């Protein structure tokens, strides 16, 4: 029977009993509480295989209902570009090189709209010795003849490619010591007076530069790189587009990194790049994990005790600029010139040139002072981000772990997590390992971290704090200039016949014959890794276990084995007190 309120008989009776008896009310209450506890226990406990005996089955059933039964199609990731965290930025004032250029040399600037010929230092190109502030240029050889071995041997082809790319030319960072000149003018403007070679400072506008953002020249560098890599690896890109619809590209969230990735893809695909590529932007900020800015996950990063590079650099500029201080001192009134200020002026030569096309600071220094300035950056980078820092390798190994997953086409290994973001890396949509073309966009510091974590012996040699070795391999200008790039190529080759054998292994290299027997894989081809840093081949023989070869390549299995100990030597634990 159902009455006019719509309540069935049993409910009416229960309500009546509850109204009249306190004991029944308590029973109802307890029953309700027990029911709630049960629901919450099953619903919010993690679902999984663990969980013992009696409750396991019911737990699993309830958990599956709550967590979804796994049969629902996964929500498709949409790769938003605007994830926030662009970092601090400040736009600069416009350039006007056509008005300001008074250089009477070669008037044809072509595709390089900056004045890099400095009459005061003759033929020496100081722009190739500016450390991380060098505009992109192809690196000279690192010990392998790139000219001889760049062309693949007969029967070889490139299977897959992994690119780690730095952003292009930018304004000074917020923490840059180049900003000291701006501060000097803000604080002392009224009393400053310059003459002789420093005369130009009387009309210099120290507020003209912005902060952090990519400048148009930086955009050009990345656009050209996109064009270049589309030409080099268009077949791999095309195959990825056919198999996966879109390319998979990653970038850190800072504005210049995102802008660089976009310029690169515009070089590849023009304005329609969004239809051709997914850009995964990973947040660069405190408390976030990303291998593209590992410093945020490494709490001891950025301290003087773990990153002595700046201290080494400071000692060094006080030494190499001693003569310049004496030389220029008489022309500055109202300020005591010192090594720090002159080093800042050397940096402004680079910053003004990439932002405005030319700089009067460039002519103030001698060839030797530019070479020593280059070494200043080597000390800073080696000591703070490279093998000279106890957290240098630690910050690079996260990217290397990801690279290894991609190389072996296996899921990322969560048990060795360092700066990786497990949310991204445990999802094949946000960390695919089945692509032929990968490109990640990041900072000079990360390129240096990764170089250290790879344990390439020649690049990890200690630097003398007072005597630059002209034959050193660690040179920031050639490793991480603006728009610098590490390109790892996976190459496969037919089993070499004897004449190709002679070309590859050189004459009399005894390890050659050994490698011919090894490494026959199921597709009947031999597999190799080749590393190009800014287009120059790196000799991978410096890794333990890689055969010595004239072409610098390493057999794929040997390479993977050589890096098996990476998490031990990288010491992620040093990132924490
Ligand atoms: C996700 O994308 C795949 C492939 O494009 C499609 O088949 C699937 O229906 C999509 N899933 C959802 C939930 O939209
Ligand atoms: C260009 O102008 C700067 C000052 O603006 C001056 O110091 C320099 O000598 C000039 N160079 C030439 C080649 O005229
Ligand atoms: C770009 O995309 C639009 C819209 O899909 C299309 O009409 C146009 O033809 C594309 N342009 C190029 C150069 O592919
Ligand atoms: C990992 O990345 C995701 C997606 O950007 C983000 O929501 C999450 O906060 C990140 N986690 C950490 C610890 O960085
Ligand atoms: C993950 O790394 C650990 C530690 O190096 C190793 O023991 C384990 O075998 C790895 N797992 C896979 C699936 O490779
Ligand atoms: C972030 O990194 C830390 C340190 O390796 C790790 O403990 C944590 O699980 C990571 N978080 C995510 C979401 O990846």
UniProtKB/TrEMBL annotation:
<dbReference type="GO" id="GO:0003993">
    <property type="term" value="F:acid phosphatase activity"/>
</dbReference>
<dbReference type="InterPro" id="IPR033379">
    <property type="entry name" value="Acid_Pase_AS"/>
</dbReference>
<dbReference type="InterPro" id="IPR029033">
    <property type="entry name" value="His_PPase_superfam"/>
</dbReference>
<keyword id="KW-0378">Hydrolase</keyword>
<dbReference type="Pfam" id="PF00328">
    <property type="entry name" value="His_Phos_2"/>
</dbReference>
<dbReference type="InterPro" id="IPR000560">
    <property type="entry name" value="His_Pase_clade-2"/>
</dbReference>
<keyword id="KW-0472">Membrane</keyword>
<keyword id="KW-0812">Transmembrane</keyword>
<feature type="transmembrane region" description="Helical">
    <location>
        <begin position="26"/>
        <end position="45"/>
    </location>
</feature>
<keyword id="KW-1133">Transmembrane helix</keyword>
<protein>
    <submittedName>
        <fullName>Phosphoglycerate mutase-like protein</fullName>
    </submittedName>
</protein>
